[in-house]
Design a protein that fits this description.
By secondary structure, this protein is of the alpha/beta class. It contains eleven helices and ten strands. Bound molecules: zinc ion (ZN). It holds the Pfam family YgjP-like.
Length: 307
């Protein structure tokens, strides 16, 4: 068993680990916002009784002996919700110490992100549920500077109205997308405009969008449109994308002259292009298209003129 795994045999008392306030998450459950976490059920010939296992790779797994009444499982999971939350938090702490923060560890049980890690701006925003207008209530207690990944500062908390959270992703995802678009307009567009001024590019205009696969695009008129998903990328990769799009204001193609210009403005362009191919892993799952995105598709999409 990995060091990061935690077992719990049902029937015993939950272990007291002292990490997390008592009653944490109660507010959410009372409102019916946060029912049961997703889990995998595994029937084991060797298991003598039910066990809950939490691991980074698989999340929550419910191991049951053969012949166990499967309809009882939701009840078993519900009874151990407090332990599940503590185990998740321990995994997050371990992931932070290891310098990795898998998306799954950051998302709440219903897929609602707990954090928005805007690496481009060096900001971490905690996500909370606003139970009543003007009265912040239920959170996971994570809006805490100690929980912020290294290199980012706790910028604040984003409150999502509880009715939107109750509707699931169709409720909260558009809300968060609008919020992110605002951060991108405030943080990315001035960056692009400053870069254009400093490097002598003629930028006709700029805007923010949320295209499926492109990080940005540039129109024949010299209007650059940036994806709000850039917010999640490290600053050096964002700057590379900004330079890429600004170079399209000179060359609206991906020919040798275009790449010479890119490399002149970004001496580490080759490294940045390579890293950009894996950069989708920085973007939270709820913002990625349902189908997996090939790196070449994302790369090809860059800088095409807007229709
Ligand atoms: Zn391009």
């Amino acid at each position: 068993m990995e060091a990061s795994q935690r077992d719990r045999r049902c029937g015993g008392r939950p272990r007291r680990e002292g990490d997390g306030p008592p009653g944490e998450g109660d507010g959410l459950r009372r409102q019916g916002v946060d029912p049961l976490p997703p889990y995998t059920v595994r029937v084991s010939a060797r298991a003598r009784r039910v066990r809950l296992v939490m691991s980074p790779a698989e999340g929550l797994v419910v191991v049951v002996p053969r012949g166990f009444a499967l309809p009882r499982i939701p009840q078993v999971v519900a009874e151990h919700a407090a332990w599940i939350r503590r185990a998740r938090r321990r995994l997050e702490q371990q992931a932070r110490r290891a310098g990795a923060l898998p998306d799954t560890a950051l998302d709440a049980d219903d897929g609602l992100p707990r954090w928005l890690l805007l690496r481009a701006l060096g900001e971490a925003w905690a996500v909370g549920v606003d139970a009543a207008r003007g009265r912040p209530a239920a959170t996971d207690g994570l809006a805490d500077a100690r929980s912020v990944p290294a290199g980012l500062t706790l910028a604040g908390q984003v409150w999502i109205p509880a009715p939107l959270v109750r509707r699931g992703p169709v409720g909260w995802a558009p809300f968060l997308r609008r919020w992110l678009a605002g951060r991108a307009r405030a943080g990315l567009l001035p960056w692009l405009e400053r870069l254009a001024r400093e490097r002598g590019f003629r930028l006709a205009g700029s805007s923010v969008g949320c295209p499926k696969t492109r990080w940005g695009s540039c129109s024949a008129a010299g209007h650059v449109r940036l994806s709000l998903k850039l917010l999640f990328l490290p600053p050096e990769l964002v700057e590379h994308v900004l330079i890429h799009e600004l170079c399209h204001t000179v060359h609206l193609h991906h020919g040798p002259a275009f790449w010479r210009l890119v490399h002149r403005h970004d001496p580490r362009a080759a490294e940045h292009r390579r890293r950009l191919r894996g950069a989708w892993s920085y973007v939270p799952g709820w913002l990625r298209p349902a189908r997996s995105i090939g790196p070449s598709a994302a790369d090809r999409g860059m800088g095409r003129p807007l229709p």
